[in-house]
Amino acid sequence: MSDFEVQTIENTGSSCSFKHATEIKKGEVIKIQDCPCSVKSFRHVRNGKHGHVRVVFNAYHVFSGRKYEWMVSGDSIVSVVDVERVNMVVQAMNNGACDLMDLETFELFEGVPIKPDQVATVEKAYNKIDPNGSKEMIAMVSRALDLEYVAAYKLQEMEY
Questions:
Q1: I need a surface site. Which of 82, 109, 117, 148 has the fewest CB within 10 A?
Q2: C-alpha span between 60 and 39 (Å, rounded)
Q3: What is the mean pLDDT of residues 16-39?
Q4: With helix as H, strand as E and coil as C, how does 45-87 read?
């Protein structure tokens, strides 16, 4: 029997890769408590009389900004999350969420949440758009671990 077994994990959302905890670098997005978190800092700590290396990660949730501190053994396998960014057209806005249409597949997504600190700004900009005008709102949506949020937005001229 080997030291560790490789498991095939089927992930319907964004893809993940795996690294040892000591190989993770600042800025990478890792999975902590089933949440995508961006590593802001880390430190290596030697604990116990046998001197096993531990890694302490300080990270922030990619979407909510919540702070996480996570300590793992240096030889632990950590999931590194790929964050996908997609541009979509805003179709409607309601209660801090929006209905979007993917520009590539024309697929509709309902109720995609906006980052809490941007809700008022996005709704204000959306309300300025004239329904018969030549502008549309484009939202950049970030997806990771079956979660998606509107990360940014911009107004642009419609393309016919």
A1: 117
A2: 7
A3: 90
A4: EEECCCCEEEEEEEEEECCCCCEEEEEEECCCEEEEECCEEEE
Tokens of 110: 């309902």
Is residue 46 within 8 Å of residue 52, measured between CB atoms? yes
**CA 129 to each of CA 86, 99, 108, 111: distance values in angstroms, whole numbers, following the listed order:** 22, 15, 20, 20
* Assigned token pair, 158: 């419609």
SS3 state of residue 129:
coil
Using alpha carbons, select from 29, 27, 42, 40 the residue that is nearest to residue 67.
40
What integer pLDDT is reported at residue 12 of this predicted model?
41
Report how far residue 142's alpha carbon sits from residue 24's, in angstroms, rounded to the nearest whole number: 21
List pLDDT tens digits, range 33-80: 888 999 999 998 877 667 778 899 999 988 888 899 999 988 889 999
Q: Note whether 42 and 55 are within 8 A (CB).
A: yes
